From TrEMBL:
A Pfam family recorded for this sequence: NTP_transf_2
GO molecular function: nucleotidyltransferase activity
InterPro entries: NT_sf, Polymerase_NTP_transf_dom
The name this protein goes by in its record: Oxalate:formate antiporter
Domain of life from the UniProt record: Bacteria
Domain Polymerase nucleotidyl transferase: 13-59
């Protein structure tokens, strides 16, 4: 069930947006699609724009966002690689809302099939038929080609004593490698570590060991657990054409062990 505050905002937004002739449809994604929206969820709007007015609408994004409710703050999404995105915080009851403004000509290129909330003359429905949703799935070979280079990199930061840098780096491995593979193993899309506690409860105990405290010893231990989990997942997903970077693995592991012995 959609929380009352979320539903009220969605209903009001549709009323406002449909009055702008330049906007030809409104859809939503994320937890709305799976009916898992709760009080902590944000709202992900995809706002389809007539291509003839797209640049004009993009220049007015913040103004449009302000018409939807009490806008406390808003900024664009270049930091997540999506400049079309306007990330908003509304009040007085706080609500996070993502507004992605997409030209109707580009809306078929997507990572998921959104729920269409409103559209003019079925234009969004027709546009979506031009292509299928494609969620980016990491390839095991892509990971393997990089993983041991990353392990060496992490070991060099430990060796230099850059503990904060190492802690952040280990977090990135959990986010880019371990989390997505665990989610995929459990039949979910590889969304970092999103809801991994609920999807893969049996993995949580080991995942906790990948979170280091502020010490060289803890960072080394966490990095070794990262490697252990990766090797297990690698065997689970391995295919006949997969190429193990055996020499890179050996040299990187030896280097980490050398750093470990040097700090005892």
């Amino acid at each position: 069930m959609i929380p009352i505050n979320h539903k009220s905002f969605i209903d009001n937004s549709i009323k406002v947006l449909k009055d702008d002739f330049r906007i030809v449809g409104v859809a939503t994604g994320g937890s709305y699609i799976t009916n898992e929206m709760d009080e902590y969820s944000d709202i992900d709007f995809i706002i389809a724009v007539d291509s003839n007015y797209y640049e004009e609408v993009m220049n007015e994004r913040t103004k449009i966002a302000a018409n939807l409710g009490t806008l406390l703050s808003a900024f664009t999404g270049e930091h997540v690689g999506e400049p079309r995105l306007l990330i908003c915080l509304y009040g007085p009851e706080l609500l996070h809302v993502d507004l992605k403004f997409v030209s109707i000509n580009d809306i078929a290129h997507r990572v998921e099939d959104p729920v269409i909330l409103w559209e003019r003359d079925n234009c969004v429905s027709e546009a979506l038929k031009q292509d299928n949703a494609k969620f980016p799935i990491p390839k095991l070979q892509w990971i393997e080609d990089r993983f041991w280079v990353w392990i060496h990199y992490g070991a060099t930061k430990i060796g230099r004593g850059e503990i904060f840098e190492t802690i952040e780096f280990i977090s990135s491995l959990r986010q880019m490698v371990i989390g997505p593979l665990i989610l995929m193993k459990n039949g979910e899309l590889p969304r970092g570590v999103r809801k991994i506690e609920f999807v893969a409860p049996d993995s949580i105990s080991l995942l906790k060991d990948t979170i280091p405290s502020y010490s060289i010893e803890s960072c080394i231990k966490s990095l070794k657990v990262i490697m252990q989990i990766y090797l297990e997942l690698r065997e689970y997903f391995i295919t006949e054409d997969f190429v193990k970077r055996v020499e890179a693995e050996k040299c990187s592991v030896d280097y980490l062990n050398k750093i470990n012995h040097g700090n005892k």
